[in-house]
């Protein structure tokens, strides 16, 4: 499946500044491995040592949080938008 | 209704709206809203809530005004540099609307004092600048069954959501983000920078949600996260749900008292 991955500002230094990265894969886990291959370092920011999604980073398939779908096993369709949204805390 | 002639004129553009009217304006007057922080988010939010006639505003902030705050913290002005933020906030807000009550707390909010500080308010707005305070406010508002209107920002990005984990169908902040990031993954405030006007956008979105909650009008961002990017001028609204494994608001809660996380941003004054 060909999807677009939306990269949040704090991780764009790993994508050469790109906010949208094309990726190939049937599941969210496959997409993460795919973007890791083209942009090394991304996976460690998204996943812990066991491969689980970090608890302060959310991944949305279109407008749905994958935590409430099938997590990393969530299946994708051509044209899907996968958005990475990390927690941010600034307010002052 | 209990409005003076002056108030009827002051709020006339509200009262003429059928979604507000005299009854809605009375709800605003009766409302008690607590703001965590008189900084980037608290400034625009408090100004509009005061102007709107929210009858009681509480504000907590321990900091004094720094020159580098004035790029975005519009409650404070150049002569306020060096003065406590809650003092200049009170003066600015009373100048906008002398009819309202403003309670100020010049302390750091902690697990020991938070419940007592917010207990008399109807709605809490989070404009804090670190994860430990955000988790603390979430847990405290859950325990006291108060809606929490959360706004946060980073460089050019903003996030807004309404948290009501005490309701059976609504998620809390821990449903959205189960744990704070470790301190070494959080860029320092100085490193991060912030587009000043972004604070206005995010703070005013929080004030909008707060006013809608008071009026009982419209759809609020409960179970929805609004993600804003100022550079691309894009708003994205994504959904999340009550997490059945949530340690706070799930069916098998593990968190039954307030926790203190280590403050991960060391430059809180900026």
How would you characterize the overall build of this protein?
The complex is a heterodimer of chains A (92) and B (270). Chain A is of the alpha+beta class and 92 residues long. Chain A has one domain: Roll (Ubiquitin-like (UB roll)). Helices cover 17% and strands 25% of the residues of chain A. Chain A has two helices and five strands. Chain A has a five-stranded mixed sheet, with helices on one face. In chain A, a hairpin with a 2-residue loop joins strand 3 (57-61) and strand 4. The model of chain A has no long low-confidence stretch (mean pLDDT 95). Chain B is of the alpha/beta class. Chain B has one domain: NAD(P)-binding Rossmann-like Domain (Rossmann fold), CATH 3.40.50.720. In chain B, 33% of the residues lie in helices and 17% in strands. Chain B has helices at residues 5-10, 12-15, 21-30, 42-52, 85-96, 114-118, 131-143, 173-176, 189-192, 196-215; strands at 32-36, 56-60, 101-105, 123-126, 148-154, 157-163, 224-229, 234-239. In chain B, strand 1 (32-36), helix 4 and strand 2 (56-60) form a beta-alpha-beta unit. In chain B, helix 4 packs parallel to helix 5 and helix 4 packs parallel to helix 10. The longest helix of chain B has 20 residues, at 196-215. The termini of chain B are far apart. Residues 264-270 of chain B have low confidence and may be disordered. Chains A and B meet through strand 4 and strand 5 of A and strand 5, strand 7 and strand 8 of B.
Summarize the structure.
Chain A has 92 residues and is α+β, with helices and mostly antiparallel strands. Chain A has helices spanning 28-38, 42-46, and strands at residues 2-6, 20-24, 57-61, 64-65, 81-86.
């Amino acid at each position: 499946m060909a999807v677009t991955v939306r990269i949040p500002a704090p991780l764009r230094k790993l994508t050469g500044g790109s906010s949208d990265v094309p990726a190939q894969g049937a599941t969210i886990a496959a997409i993460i491995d795919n973007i890791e291959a083209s942009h090394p370092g991304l996976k460690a920011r998204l996943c812990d040592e066991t491969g689980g999604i970090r608890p302060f980073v959310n991944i949305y398939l279109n407008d749905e949080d994958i935590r409430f779908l099938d997590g990393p096993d969530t299946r994708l369709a051509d044209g899907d938008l996968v958005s990475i949204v990390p927690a941010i805390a600034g307010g002052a | 209704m209990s409005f003076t002639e002056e108030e009827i004129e002051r709020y006339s553009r509200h009262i003429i709206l059928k979604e507000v009217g005299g009854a809605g304006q009375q709800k605003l007057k009766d409302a008690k809203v607590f703001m965590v922080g008189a900084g980037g988010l608290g400034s625009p939010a408090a100004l509009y809530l005061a102007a709107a006639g929210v009858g009681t505003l509480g504000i907590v902030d321990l900091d004094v005004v720094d020159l580098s705050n004035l790029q975005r913290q519009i409650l404070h002005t150049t002569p306020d540099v060096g003065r406590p933020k809650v003092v200049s906030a009170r003066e600015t807000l009373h100048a906008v609307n002398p009819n309202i009550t403003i309670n100020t707390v010049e302390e750091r909010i902690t697990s020991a004092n938070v419940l007592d500080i917010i207990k008399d308010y109807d709605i809490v707005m989070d404009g804090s600048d670190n994860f430990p305070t955000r988790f603390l406010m979430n847990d405290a508002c859950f325990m006291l069954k108060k809606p929490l209107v959360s706004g946060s920002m980073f460089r050019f990005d903003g996030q807004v959501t309404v948290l009501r984990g005490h309701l059976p169908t609504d998620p809390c902040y821990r449903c959205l983000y189960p744990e704070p990031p470790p301190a070494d993954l959080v860029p320092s405030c100085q490193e991060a920078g912030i587009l000043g006007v972004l604070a206005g956008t995010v703070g005013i979105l929080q004030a909008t949600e707060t006013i809608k909650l008071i009026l009982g009008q419209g759809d609020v961002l409960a179970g929805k996260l609004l993600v804003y990017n100022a550079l691309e001028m894009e708003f994205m609204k994504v959904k999340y749900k009550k997490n059945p494994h949530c340690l706070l608001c799930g069916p098998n809660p593990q968190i039954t008292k307030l926790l203190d996380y280590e403050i991960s941003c060391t430059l809180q004054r900026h």
